[in-house]
Amino acid sequence: EAGVTQFPSHSVIEKGQTVTLRCDPISGHDNLYWYRRVMGKEIKFLLHFVKESKQDESGMPNNRFLAERTGGTYSTLKVQPAELEDSGVYFCASSPVRVQPGNTIYFGEGSWLTVV
Amino acid sequence: AQTVTQSQPEMSVQEAETVTLSCTYDTSENNYYLFWYKQPPSRQMILVIRQEAYKQQNATENRFSVNFQKAAKSFSLKISDSQLGDTAMYFCAFMIKAAGNKLTFGGGTRVLVKP
């Protein structure tokens, strides 16, 4: 069974440009999460989808970040325009359909974003 | 707000020896879960071990065990008989039972197992 896959694995863009990160969750997982780790800091929650609906987007830093999950399958996270402080690793994770506390959450390898 | 603190940025250990990673957290909640995740270099982050706050017995998974001290809000991870494949970043994380699956992470501890 394929795990959570993220694309691209690495991206270097200039300040002001746009980047779109993609996440394919494990098949059948209705819950999809985005987290990010800015260099030297903790991994921070960004948002949570249940199918195509945003369950919790309290961690989204500002309106330059847009997450979508059309059709409830893969998700994209777009940063537009990118700023230097957006550099970091963006993790996607998924978990099974029932939101039972303690469900194992499966993480992807992360997408490394560098804004120069 | 919940916080998780890992006070050791890096640790090294000789192969076959034991290493203990510290984690403390702060919360006013009573029902929660604690986790240790491992991220090897260029690999996915995977769950190592999970502890439910209402269980007094410390969780164990093979060579990995925790020392959960609820009153002290401490959740340390012990890796016994360390292997080269244990080299990774280790993250302590916290989840409130009533808040779905939202994780709060510590800053991570880099563990290097030396041959």
Please explain how this structure is put together:
The complex is a heterodimer of chains A (116) and B (115). Chain A has strands spanning 5-7, 10-13, 19-24, 31-38, 43-50, 53-56, 65-68, 75-79, 88-95, 106-107, 111-115. Chain A is mainly β and 116 residues long. Chain A is globular and about 40 Å long. The relative contact order of chain A is 0.33. Chain B has strands at 3-5, 10-14, 19-21, 24-26, 32-39, 46-52, 60-61, 64-69, 74-79, 88-96, 104-105, 109-114. Chain B contains no helices and twelve strands. In chain B, strands 2, 5, 6, 10, 11 and 12 form a six-stranded mixed sheet that branches. Chain B has a four-stranded antiparallel sheet with strand order 3-9-8-7, with no helix packed on it. The A-B interface holds A 3-4, 31, 33, 35, 40-45, 48, 55-56, 91, 95, 99, 101-110 and B 4, 33, 37, 39, 42-47, 50, 52, 91, 95-98, 100-108.
Descriptive terms for the model:
heterodimer, A: 116 residues, mainly beta, seven-stranded mixed sheet, four-stranded antiparallel sheet, 11 strands, globular, B: 115 residues, six-stranded mixed sheet
Q: What number is the mean pLDDT of chain A?
A: 91
User: Unreliable segments of chain B (pLDDT under 50, ≥5 consecutive)?
Assistant: none
Helix content of chain B: under 10%
**pLDDT averaged over residues of chain B:** 93
Shape of chain B: globular
Helical stretch count of chain B?
0
Oligomer: heterodimer
What level of helicity do the residues of chain A show? Answer: under 10%
Shape annotation of chain A: globular
The parts of chain A where pLDDT drops under 50 for at least 5 residues are none
Helix vs. strand class of chain A: mainly beta
Q: Main β-sheet of chain B: number of strands, strand sense, barrel status? A: 6 strands, mixed
